[in-house]
């Protein structure tokens, strides 16, 4: 790993590989804290590298010091869980005599509280081969030249790297540094559309929206076709540009729709485009379009998965289902509201806002039926019995509170009938406090 002043992270960064890896190599680029001391204490080999504003050069120097057939190139703010580290060892042992030379793993970006803010996949584990080296001074990537056994195997569903470097305080540290390296790269390669997109990302994160807008436009113009049907960087260019435009309000709506059209034309399997549009329309109260785009996003995720795709949607899937249920409810699609709420409640039945939405939809459906066939409160109670254990006081209380909040009187009566007189007396006393 490449480090500089990582005393807060270095011990955890080296701990996940204990008992798994044969050697741990730390390349220090000028630490002034206890990073080197702690790395040596943990048993790592430490080498010093004169920083030359080039991450690829530093990583390639690290590779040159490795003596094992496989390399895991993680940053100091990245780690595997112990369970996944053990799986990784099994993976490389199975792949040793295969054609595969790169392992694609999941990647979960965490905020300051440890919550996932984005998910995706990346190659951090690869064979130690002369033809596998990093390119580009910043936002570097692994390139394979002249190697037969460097095909990629997808292990993103089985293995995940956790990355804390997207926390607020860490992102702030990187902004200015990355921008200068990107500008240096663009000076040498002015037609590099990917670097223009990274520059736009920097401007966006700094709140320099006009400059970001121009950079994103230019990046899209210079976007090169890809031989496969997917490109992570191209997708992120569109996703971040759409996110920025969606936050700028109705003044940018025309361009938002135009960029969305360009995005789905180039990358029709990407769910995040519709996720961003769905959230935008839901936020402005256009629930029909919100439902349309969010349901399309969920459908794309189900069909194509999240390998190299759907990073934002994957990180916010529960919230998306609840927002989709809310859009359906406000759009009059009560059955859709119930269906999406059910998906979410099967995963976590104790989401009050979700159950409230579901019961509100059932109540409204019953009111609108006026003698037509519909679920009555008794049928709803039977349905809820598949999600909740009504023998448990906790579940009865939870459903009762939601039914009362939804003003679903007929269901409240049925749920109250599940309590004994003594229990009801306690419940009523608590409710009226």
TrEMBL record:
Q: Which residues form the Glycosyltransferase 2-like domain?
A: 1-96
Q: Where is the signal peptide?
A: none
What domain of life does the native source organism fall in?
Bacteria
Recorded GO MF terms = transferase activity
Which parts form a coiled-coil structure per UniProt?
Answer: none
Q: Please give the InterPro entries that the UniProt record associates with this protein.
A: Glyco_trans_2-like, Nucleotide-diphossugar_trans, TPR-like_helical_dom_sf
**What are the protein's UniProt keywords?**
Transferase
Q: What is this protein called?
A: Glycosyltransferase
UniProt organism field: Clostridium porci
């Amino acid at each position: 790993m490449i480090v500089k002043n990582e005393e807060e992270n270095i011990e955890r960064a080296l701990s996940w590989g204990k008992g798994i890896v044969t050697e741990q190599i730390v390349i220090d680029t000028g630490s002034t804290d206890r990073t080197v001391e702690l790395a040596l204490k943990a048993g790592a080999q430490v080498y010093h590298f004169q920083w030359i504003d080039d991450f690829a050069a530093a990583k390639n120097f690290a590779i040159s010091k490795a003596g094992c057939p496989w390399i895991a190139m993680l940053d100091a703010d990245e780690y595997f869980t112990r369970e996944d580290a053990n799986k990784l060892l099994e993976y490389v042992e199975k792949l040793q005599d295969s054609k595969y030379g790169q392992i694609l793993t999941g990647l979960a970006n965490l905020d300051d509280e440890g919550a996932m803010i984005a998910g995706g996949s990346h190659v951090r584990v690869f064979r130690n081969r002369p033809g596998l080296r990093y390119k580009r001074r910043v936002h570097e990537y692994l390139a394979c030249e002249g190697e037969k056994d460097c095909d990629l195997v997808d292990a993103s569903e089985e293995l995940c790297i956790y990355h804390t470097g997207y926390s607020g305080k860490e992102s702030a540290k990187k902004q200015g540094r990355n921008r200068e390296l990107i500008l240096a790269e663009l000076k040498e390669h002015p037609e590099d559309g990917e670097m223009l997109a990274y520059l736009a990302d920097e401007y966006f994160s700094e709140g320099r929206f006009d400059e970001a807008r121009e950079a994103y436009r230019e990046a899209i113009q210079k976007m090169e076709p890809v031989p496969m049907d997917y490109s992570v960087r191209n997708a992120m260019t569109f996703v971040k540009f759409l996110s920025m435009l969606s936050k700028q309000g109705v003044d940018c709506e025309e361009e938002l729709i135009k960029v969305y059209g360009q995005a789905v034309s180039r990358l029709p399997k990407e769910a995040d485009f519709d996720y961003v549009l769905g959230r935008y329309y839901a936020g402005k109260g256009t629930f029909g379009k919100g439902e349309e785009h969010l349901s399309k996003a969920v459908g794309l995720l189900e069909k194509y998965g999240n390998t190299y795709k759907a990073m934002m949607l994957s990180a916010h899937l529960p919230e998306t289902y609840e927002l989709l249920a809310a859009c359906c409810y406000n759009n009059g699609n009560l059955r859709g509201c119930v269906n999406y709420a059910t998906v979410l409640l099967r995963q976590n039945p104790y989401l009050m806002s979700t159950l409230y939405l579901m019961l509100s939809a059932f109540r409204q459906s019953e009111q609108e039926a006026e003698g037509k066939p519909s679920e009555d409160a008794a049928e709803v109670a039977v349905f809820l019995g598949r999600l909740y254990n009504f023998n448990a006081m906790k579940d009865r209380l939870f459903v009762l509170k939601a039914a009362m909040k939804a003003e679903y009187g007929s269901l409240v009566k049925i749920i109250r009938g599940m309590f004994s007189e003594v229990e009801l007396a306690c419940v009523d006393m608590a409710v009226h406090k």
